[in-house]
Task: structure prediction
Amino acid sequence: MAALSEGRPPTAGSRIAVLGATGCVGRCVSAALAREGHQVLAVARRGGPAVADHDFVGLDVAAVPPSDLARLFTRHRVSAVVNVTGGWGTTEEEMRYAHITLVDRLLRAVTQMEARPRLVHVGSIHEYGPVPEPRSIGEGLEPRPTTMYASTKLAGSELVLDASRGGRVDGLVLRAVNVCGPRTTRASFLGAVVDTLRAADPGEPVTLRVADARRDFIDVRDLAEAVVLAVTSPATGQVVNIGRGEASAMRELVDLLVAVSGLPSGAVRIEDGPIASKGGGWTLADIRLAGELLGWKPRIPLSEAMRATWETPAD
Result:
């Protein structure tokens, strides 16, 4: 049987492949790994300034034969793979391709390797499905997703868990809450709010429709630190929630964004809007296991996260 991660977690100086390296999370994870002394192999469909500081391979992981991917990792002596790919696709086909097909090919590639790298897969808190307020979401909660996004994300995570628990892969699944901070994607609610505020005419009121919802949000830089700790952790075959452990009102987050936007007082009107979410109107992650297994806790306050969301928008 092939060795799993050469029998030990990666150490400083190891080569870590980051899949989805040009996205909001991937860029931050790559930078955090580099700061800890790791060498980053950035993998994404398209390159650019986001990966200028790392070795880069332009690749659609879901489209290549697993044997090709295995040879790539072997050639670069990759000791761990971080999967932060994923998409906000609008069709079932797009979401299955991004969340299931890609993970399946990645696992097939890793299991073909003589020295199998460690795998850290970043999933979503939405995999659990809607949870009634004020319940916190612990890792023991049985997932019951109700949307195609959440269902396909769960399927991908379960592939990793099955392979890890079966001894075929040394893997860990992180289920992250909603992300904010630098380069928050425009496809998210907060990213759309930033775009709306930036396009606003100071002389014309802006109307924002905000749901009466409370959700757990984390700065992407805190998430990146959790990923770095997960890469070198001996924990395997488990799910670990990553969040702030707080449920914040969406109106509070919008107010923080408006405050740092510089728009004059009264320039923004907030109206009640529908709850449009991939996981429901309430999310609150129980993050105790992350502290116990990884020695991790969130550090960046939401006020600073919202400032970074405004000051460093998506490219």
